[in-house]
Amino acid sequence: MAKILMKGNEAVAEAAIRSGCRLYFAYPITPQSELIEYMARMMPKVNGTFLQAESEVSAINMVYGAAGCGKRVMTSSSSPGISLKMEGISYIAGAELPCVIVNVQRGGPGLGDIQPAQGDYFQATKGGGHGDYRLIVMAPSSVQEFADMASEAFDLADKYRNPVMILADGMLGQMMEPVEFKPSRSDEEIAEMWRQHESWCVCPNEDGDKKHHHEINSLEIDPQVLEKHVNDLYQKYGVIEKNEVRYEEFNVSDDNEILCVAWGTASRIVKSAINELKAAGKSVGLIRPINVWPYPYEAVAKAIGPKVKKVYVFELNTGQMLDDVKIAVNGKVPVDFWGKVGGIVFTPAEIQAKLEECF
Amino acid sequence: MEKIAYRPETLTKTPFTYCPGCLHGVAHRLIAEAVDEQGLVNQMTGVAPVGCSVFAYKFFNFDMAQAAHGRAPAVATGMKRARPDMHVFTYQGDGDLAAIGTAEIVHAANRGEHISVFFVNNAIYGMTGGQMAPTTLPEMKTTTSPYGRKTDDIGFPIRVSELLATLIAPYYIERVSLLSPADILKAKKAVSKAIQYNKEGRGFTFVEFISTCPTNWGIDPLKSREWAKENMLPFFKLGCLRDKGEGVE
Amino acid sequence: MTTEMICAGFGGQGVLTIGKFLAKAGMTEGKNVSWLPSYGPEMRGGTANVSTVISDDAIASPIVSYPDILVALNQPSIDKFAPSIRPGGILIYNTNMCPHGCKRDDITIIKAPMVEIANEIGNQMVLNMLAIGIIIGKTAIIKYETMEADLTGFMKAKNPELLELNLKAIKRGIEIGNS
User: Fold this and answer.
1) What share of chain A is helix, strand, coil (3-state, %, to 5)?
2) Which spans in chain B are helix H?
3) Is residue A148 part of a domain?
4) Which of A 159-218 lie inside 8 A of C, CB atoms?
5) Which end of chain C is more exposed for a tag (fewer CB within 10 A), N or C?
6) Do B78 and A213 touch (CB under 8 A)?
């Protein structure tokens, strides 16, 4: 299939539809509005449901209802709107429903601004909503990857009956890059994906004497029962941690004097700086977590080569993934951090200057 | 021999967990009977709220979802849109629907969402222990209005049925009471109509039940019905506000 | 080879489109491309700019720190971005809206009264196509034939007259770029 030049916001929407998403509920917010607008245009063409909800709160609860019926459903928003969804996300995680949530991050806290930022890392990977739960969190760094993650996210959500968040940012949402889409799933394939959930989801009762009674629920009033439920969830999260760690190594070698760790948009800027330094004969490696939960702790630790003086973390926040890197490095070498906030994206030149100070 | 007392097919054998004298059980039964009568036992699904009826998902013998506080109409919207072949209702109390869930109910009604909403109004929060509700009457004492509801401070009770009847889309809106056997028979008719309209895909249907809370009102069950008749019914007038099927607009 | 460009001007001058058509043509020619607009309130009446990268290799940062090419349609764009043009790079600017020009002597400067020329061609809207033409005339980053085919596919059915004007503007731009 030929490549199409597309904005990230539109590419992820198109890829979601192709992977069988037939329900989408959301509320407009910059810088993700092209996503909701694309869904408004395209969902009717595949006999899907597009509904602009009265709030982010309602949108995520519509997702809860639709996911409870076992269908591929998605919502999207940007940082302040994601905060509003957090209640519903906790319920969805507790009730073990599969769905995909896209966060096109912008500057915060509060209303913040509408420029790209990575300030929602803690919210996405450490909780955000109440209670003990985990989201699978995928962090794209290109429009192609953003699109690819839509179908991967749905597959993971279905596989683990767990909400999956794609943690992008305003830059990925707004920028255009060539993207190549996978073929659309056929109606038969989509129906088959729904059927795999029939053992638990809300569905018509046509089982005669063996009538089912499925409950979509996160309430367990008996502490012993709730304890078992949460322990079961954590067993599932353990399996996810074992199976779903994903990362990219860039220029990692025994010659590295600095090892960088960066995710999403920020990682691309760091790559440019590494390329410039490489031309000047200075060796810097990069680990880019592709999934930020589960986190590639072992990969970061392993990538610290014999000459590495320092692990340098670059983020568009005040140092959130930094905590995970420190856990991974575990005191082996010093860990440094530099970031930009307020929706300001650091430039390759700035990163290059920061790295050159280390030599 | 004719069976005159029986469990509706759509109620499970799980015993109700409600207080003695509570009318939730009556409302549940009316809904279950109507679902039985309409032959929807296999296509029905419901959404339980947060409140005393939070466990409603255990009592109805079809698939049920439990929603976050106030969000049942949004959850029901998602379910109905995902499974248009199924019939969806929500069951909500006055704190759930008329306070924290006002946006959800107003917009679900305004979209004419093809769901039924059963709204139990007893002028108080039950499960959390007798706090003031949006429907608490003026001067009525609750644990969070210990000196009585002061209307110059916190406003007047919300008449949800009238509020929703200002919207164009809703198909059917009626307020009934569970305060006497005669009223319960009328309530049954309203519930049956709502479920029938739901089955026929006519649009948004809404039934408000005027009910009691003997425990939190601190009045015994029989007297609490009299209290409600004297105090609630003058403010929350019974009757049909909208029935597009019968030309009531 | 990697070419990094910034196009900047007032909102409404079509700077985003310059980058978009160049990126699209680059993609058609099998190159890696990225197009990153400024977005937000400034798009409505204020200044707009777009970073476009066209490369034979995978593109690392879509944010351009040191452009190889700057297209400036107004003076604030020169003031903001010209100091960071790579030595040996190219500045293309519109003399009708850049009264102070640029004083750097380590870059190639191509200047033209682009508003006037666009009006001569028949429509001020083709100013951005003129800029595209200058880039094609001066550099080899994309071929005219690719641009013509892309534009034809995009516009022929919808607005054949505007297509003709656009192609005319690009050709005129190529002449300016070549000279």
Assistant:
1) 45, 20, 35
2) 24-37, 56-59, 72-82, 94-95, 102-110, 151-154, 160-164, 181-199, 214-217, 221-231
3) yes
4) 170-171, 174-178
5) C
6) no
Single residue among A162, A177, A195 that ends a domain in this structure: A195
Residue A126 belongs to what domain range? 4-195
The beta-carbon neighbor of B54 closest among A61, A67, A219 is A219
Taken in order of first residue, the domains within chain C and their CATH numbers are: 2-178 (3.40.920.10)
**A61 in B contact zone (CB under 8 Å):** yes
Please give the average per-residue pLDDT across A324-337, as a whole number.
98
Instruction: Tell me the nearest-neighbour CA distance from C27 into chain A, angstroms.
Output: 7
Query: CB contacts < 8 Å between A and C, how many?
Result: 64
Q: Quick check: bond before A294 cis, omega within 30?
A: yes
Q: What is the CATH number of domain B24-146+158-246?
A: 3.40.50.970
Looking at the predicted structure, is the pLDDT value of residue B103 above 80?
Answer: yes
Residue C44 has pLDDT above 60, yes or no: no
CB pair distance less than 8 Å for A57 and B57 = no
Contact criterion met (CB < 8 Å) for A65 and B63: no
User: Could you tell me the CATH number of the domain that includes residue A68?
Assistant: 3.40.50.970
- State the pLDDT at residue A206: 78
pLDDT in tens, C108-160: 999 999 999 999 999 999 999 999 999 999 998 999 999 999 999 988 889 99
At C94, give phi and psi (nearest 5°): -100, 105
Contact C170, C127 (CB under 8 A): no
- Considering CB atoms only, which of A3, A30, A171 is closest to C27? A3
Last residue of a domain, one of A195, A228, A258: A195
Domain extents for chain B? Answer: 24-146+158-246
Contact list, C39 vs chain A (CB under 8 Å): 30-31, 114, 170, 174
Q: How far is A2 from chain C (nearest CA, A)?
A: 9
Q: Going edge to edge, which strands form the sheet with C2-10?
A: A4-7, A176-179, C32-37, C47-55, C2-10, C69-72, C90-94, C108-112
Instruction: Kindly list the partner chains of chain A, i.e. chains with 3 or more CB atom pairs below 8 Å.
Output: B, C
CB contact under 8 A, A203 and B63: yes
Is A205 among the domain residues? Answer: no
Angle, CA of A194, A199 and A201, to the nearest 5°: 60
Q: Is the C-alpha dihedral spanning C86, C90, C95, C96 positive or negative?
A: negative
Q: How far apart are CA A73 and CA A82, in angstroms?
A: 16
**Sequence-separated (6 or more) residues with CB below 8 Å from residue A225:** none
Task: Identify the sign of the CA torsion A316, A319, A323, A325.
Answer: positive
Helix-helix angle A348-356:A264-279, to 10 degrees:
60
3-state secondary structure of B129: coil
Look at strands A73-77 and A49-52 and give their pairing. unpaired
The reply to whether B74 touches chain A by the CB within 8 Å rule is yes
Is the confidence at residue C79, as pLDDT, over 80? yes
Report whether the peptide linkage leading into residue C87 is cis, meaning its omega lies within 30 degrees of zero: no
Q: Tell me: the pLDDT tens digits for A71-93? A: 999 999 999 999 999 999 999 99
